[in-house]
Amino acid sequence: MAQLDDENEGDGILTVSDLKSNKGITIIHWNTRSLYPKLEEIVQINDNSQADVCIYTESWLTDCIPDGMIELDGYNLFRHDRDTTLGKQRGGGIVAYAKKHLDIIKHEKACVMTGQVEVMTLKLNLKQVREIYIMAVYRPPGSNVKEFIQIMENTILGLSDRVNIEVNLVGDVNIDLKKRNPNVKAYKDFLKRYDLCNMIKHETHYNGPVSDGSIIDHFVTNNPDLYQQAGICPTDESDHYIIFASRKKFKVETETRLLRARRYKSLVEEKFVEDLDKHSWDHILDCHDPSEAWDMFVEDFNEILDRHAPWKWMHVSVDLPDWATREFLSICRTRDHLKQKAIRIKNGHDIVTARRARIRARSSKET
């Protein structure tokens, strides 16, 4: 059993130079909005932070800028320029710098370039540690969130035939986790289906001096207990802050599965009931759509419950049979999701869809 220690988590706001003292592997991300003119600042960020993997989205690079013009001493360069044949000539693109001592490669089959999302996947190999994938992500604002999620699911499922892998999504997804709307809910549901947890809790983007800020730059992982620290580094060089996460290097000796459960031991019933009573439920009572009202109630209830019975992450040993592939487990998750939806809504169409998903899961196991 393991989780993020409160004493290590801190307030999540550091300077770039503070990152140099982090032990383990440090990964940073910054939306540069044109990398080449900011190359001097990027050299300073890399030098001052001594980060192991530095990811920069919205590089705005084209074939006119060769690798030699942006290479940095001590780092291997990986780039994923926007495909201008998709229609958009300006913007996008991803660049990553990884320290040369790391055994890291670009995982070509898990790189994506569409009008909905740009993904460059790196595969990091550490001795006696399960496969680690770092997916640098940029979702253009205004692109279809549903299609973005579908592409991300397909990409994650295609990463490896092994079940027990570490997946990290790092970048600017332009989905503000401070807001409450159908797109945010769909994104959170996607994270929940794949046991992914966003480590960034502070605002990462400010659109003007009077803006309240938004959380649109994310560091999402299915292995949060291995990250001893995560947060932001404020900077005046862009309207985006730098985000970071530092991973422990300890070995994982056996195949394990990461499970999440609530810590009810610390729950005080009287205080929990008191917070429920103080909370305003008016927006739910004013909602005329039963399904939407239910979703809002569940989200508000869970936010209160999170304060009293926080989630904890546990590693449990697994000995999975050969037929329990990632694809099969994904089908089972979909089956369970549809079953719960059918039970909750009691709609004839949803019930039929859930039954079909159950049949598909059985057929997949038999084959």
Comma- or semicolon-separated keywords:
alpha+beta, 2 domains, seven-stranded mixed β-sheet, six-stranded mixed β-sheet, disordered N terminus
The helix-and-strand class reads: alpha+beta
Q: What are the segments in which pLDDT stays under 50 over at least 5 consecutive residues? A: 1-10
Overall 3D shape: globular
Question: β content, as a range?
Answer: 15-25%
Write down the domain tally. 2
Overall pLDDT level:
87
Work out the helix count.
Answer: 9
End-to-end gap = 35 Å
* Total strands: 15
CATH class assignment of the largest domain: Alpha Beta
Question: Which CATH architecture of the largest domain would you pick?
Answer: 4-Layer Sandwich
Largest sheet: 7 strands, mixed
The SSE order reads: HEHEEEEEEEHEHEEEEEHHHEHH
Percent range of helical residues = 25-40%
CATH superfamily membership of the largest domain, which one?
Answer: Endonuclease/exonuclease/phosphatase
CATH fold call of the largest domain: Deoxyribonuclease I, Chain A
Q: What oligomeric state best describes the polypeptide chains here?
A: single chain
- Structural Rg: 21 Å
Give the structure's gist in a few sentences.
The chain is of the alpha+beta class. The chain has nine helices and 15 strands. Helices cover 31% and strands 23% of the residues.
